Amino acid sequence: MSENLARFRDRADDYAKHRPSYPAALFMEPGLSALFTRTELAADVGAGTGLFTRQLAAVVRKIVAIEPEPAMCAEASAFLRDHANIEVRQGRAEATGLAAASVDLVTVAQAFHWFDRATFRTEARRILRPGGAVLIVRNQRCKDDPFMQDYETSIRQHEVRPAVRATEAEITAFFPAGCATCVVPWSEDIDHATFLGRVRSNSTMPRPDHPAYAGMTAEVDRLFIRWQRDGQVRYAYQCQAWWGAP
Length: 246
Prior knowledge:
Blueprint: H1 2-6, H2 12-18, H3 24-28, H4 30-37, E1 41-45, H5 51-56, E2 62-67, H6 70-79, E3 86-90, E4 103-109, H7 117-127, E5 128-141, H8 146-155, H9 168-173, E6 180-190, H10 192-201, H11 213-227, E7 233-244
Parallel strand pairs: 1-2, 1-4, 2-3, 4-5
Antiparallel strand pairs: 5-7, 6-7
């Protein structure tokens, strides 16, 4: 766990400024909309800098955002300070510090792959009220988009740490009784500075003081020049969601 946290210690600023949010259509999906409507209190675990938390705050009554990494937690506190219905706490998904049977919904956005899944399931069951659910959300780059294909082939050559991922089968297996799912396609146009910051925010990528950083930035420049239109490149995503009893 400490090694995983160290990956983000010097990325909080890039993460807060350059990571994508989530499509508005996700929050209007009928099954999720019904889930949000009946949620009095949600725990957003592995909240990072609060990107998903802020959007969730518009559709549920109250949220406790829980993030283990101190710099990310500080960014979340600053980012979410104007939202009266959000409380930010430092803590882990596997040990939230929340009272038993105290929340209606546990959300995980772009973080499930970092968790000890068995321990997280135990903790989720402990803090959820009867009938409560876990919602797992992630943005995935579209595999059939030409720019995203070039990105995957080119940028991943510059990784300096192994990627940590969860397969769809592993996510589905988290829900023993089955789960509901949805996929929301969406896209975002970003400029060069945001493109570089988004790549740099990835935990597998070199930081500016690493010998591999210059090669990574050169690849970013090449990709941007090739694929930009009117000074922007288009990220094509699929936002995937799974929800059910843990």
